[in-house]
């Protein structure tokens, strides 16, 4: 019995010595993430998914607001929920599709292709283009109206121009799909430039969308009207944005677009809930200091936190975090989009029309300094009135709203620092802000800004963190658990 006890003590002592002698770099690293939008939530998700428990320890997410989601948010009007921030997702947004399946979220069914699109292009004085519409619910009538509108669009903008625009977008999408390839074929990227060049997208950020589309053979009318309507709606800017941001914007106007029932913010909330995260709401980080082996984060609540890895997952452009040592990023201006929700009825006289039914469901605008709004779109038709969403570059005064609307029952105004103000050629902040373990997800936004591009950038940041922690910089991270190599099956892998 005494011999057996002595043997157990010896084994226990040996185990303790092994633990004490185990290399420091193999210990779990604590991670701090600043921002709980889709970028920050995705970093937490991929860190957990691609690593073992002994690699990543506590993940702490700091959110200065009272809810998660960042630039994904909803408003409620007349008991209905409407997207106020990031609104639409493309059928090839495979990370977002994976998230919804993984989190058991319900997807809003995309609009049927035969549903008639009621669209008008407004120049401030008249509709330069306007589709036909019908109140009939008969499928045959809807089909006829849809065909008639297709013919009208072909006659206005030209079949070859529309086809070339479609090809321009399709080429970009096929290149973007490279970011879903297997790890064996897809390296870890230490810079935005390297990430773009690898996929063949870098040159699209060197010239404007207008220049790219002229070279692609699109007509001037198509560029000045329909393309401009799309970029003003999706990015609040003209065709002077970079070619890649413009291509992403055009992709966001295609068919099969979808959203999460109840709000896209649920993707961020769900990923955080499933990633064993310590969430701090209403706590803003005011300083980040590198102390040689850890980062010290100090918050506006007077609290201090230490992490071996820190990830900034919010735009640095309009926040006042003090970094020590100082970091250097190219100056960047955010494009503010004002989303105004109005429950009421539009004023037909404002548009030079005789009846409310003559106003298209979506009013887009050309590029003109005289136009006070970028778009007005119907969100929901109620029994006696309608909920509209208006995008504008500047806040809309109540006096102006009373000109545009004959009836206003309820009004909600939201000011978003929504995306970068794009220009070409673009300059990029580094993914690694200090040469150590301070990372910046939103550096990729200067290429294009969307929920999916944030997710793609976040996945790369997670892989970059794990590769650098393991000392395997510029490797293919083949030791990490990979996703499927077939992008078409990405939405069923989780």
TrEMBL record:
Sequence ranges assigned to domain Prenylcysteine lyase in this UniProt record: 144-473
SUPFAM superfamilies for the chain: FAD/NAD(P)-binding domain (SSF51905)
Domain of life: Eukaryota
Annotated TM spans: none
Alphabetical UniProt keywords: FAD, Flavoprotein, Glycoprotein, Oxidoreductase, Signal
Obligatory cofactor(s): FAD
Gene Ontology molecular function terms on file: oxidoreductase activity
InterPro entries for the chain: FAD/NAD-bd_sf, Prenylcys_lyase, Prenylcysteine_Oxase1
Signal peptide: 1-28
Family: Belongs to the prenylcysteine oxidase family.
Name this protein carries in UniProt: Prenylcysteine lyase domain-containing protein
């Amino acid at each position: 019995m005494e011999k057996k006890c002595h043997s157990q003590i010896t084994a226990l002592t040996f185990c303790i010595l092994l633990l004490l002698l185990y290399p420091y770099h193999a210990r779990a690293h604590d991670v701090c993430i600043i921002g709980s939008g889709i970028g920050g939530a995705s970093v937490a998700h991929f860190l957990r998914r691609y690593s073992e428990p002994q690699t990543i320890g506590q993940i702490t997410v700091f959110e200065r607001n009272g809810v998660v989601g960042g630039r994904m948010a909803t408003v409620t009007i007349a008991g209905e929920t409407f997207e106020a921030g990031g609104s639409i997702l493309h059928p090839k947004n495979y990370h977002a599709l994976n998230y919804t399946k993984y989190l058991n979220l319900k997807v809003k069914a995309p609009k049927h292709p035969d549903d008639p699109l009621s669209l008008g292009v407004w120049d401030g004085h008249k509709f330069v283009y306007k589709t036909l519409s019908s109140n009939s619910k008969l499928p045959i009538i809807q089909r006829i109206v849809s065909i008639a509108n297709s013919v009208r669009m072909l006659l206005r903008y030209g079949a070859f121009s529309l086809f070339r625009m479609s090809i321009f977008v399709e080429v970009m999408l096929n290149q973007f799909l490279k970011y879903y390839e297997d790890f064996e074929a897809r390296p870890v990227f230490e810079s935005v430039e390297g990430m773009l060049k690898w996929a063949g997208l870098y040159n699209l950020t060197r010239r404007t969308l207008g220049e790219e589309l002229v070279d692609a053979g699109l007509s001037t009318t198509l560029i000045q009207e329909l393309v401009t309507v799309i970029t003003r709606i999706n990015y609040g800017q003209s065709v002077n944005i970079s070619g890649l941001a413009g291509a992403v914007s055009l992709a966001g106007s295609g068919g099969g677009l979808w959203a999460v029932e109840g709000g896209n913010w649920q993707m961020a909330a769900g990923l955080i809930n499933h990633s064993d995260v310590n969430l701090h709401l209403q706590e803003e980080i005011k300083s980040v200091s590198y102390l040689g082996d850890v980062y010290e984060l100090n918050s506006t609540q007077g609290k201090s936190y230490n992490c071996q890895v820190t990830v900034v997952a919010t735009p640095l452009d309009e926040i006042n975090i003090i970094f020590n040592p100082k970091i250097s990023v190219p100056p960047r201006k955010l494009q503010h989009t004002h989303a105004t929700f109005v429950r009421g009825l539009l004023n037909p006289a404002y548009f030079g029309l005789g009846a409310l039914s003559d106003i298209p469901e979506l009013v887009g605008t050309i590029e003109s300094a005289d136009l006070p709004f970028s778009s007005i779109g119907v969100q929901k038709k109620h029994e006696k009135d309608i909920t509209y969403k208006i995008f504008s570059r500047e806040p809309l005064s109540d006096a102006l709203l009373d000109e545009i609307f004959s009836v206003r029952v309820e009004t909600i105004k939201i000011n978003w620092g929504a995306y970068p103000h794009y220009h070409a050629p673009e300059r990029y902040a580094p993914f690694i802000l200090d040469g150590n373990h301070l990372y910046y997800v939103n550096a990729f936004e200067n290429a294009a800004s969307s929920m999916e591009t944030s997710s793609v950038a976040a996945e790369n940041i997670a892989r970059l963190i794990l590769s650098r922690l393991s000392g395997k910089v510029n490797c293919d991270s083949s030791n990490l658990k990979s996703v499927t190599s077939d992008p078409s099956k990405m939405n069923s892998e989780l």
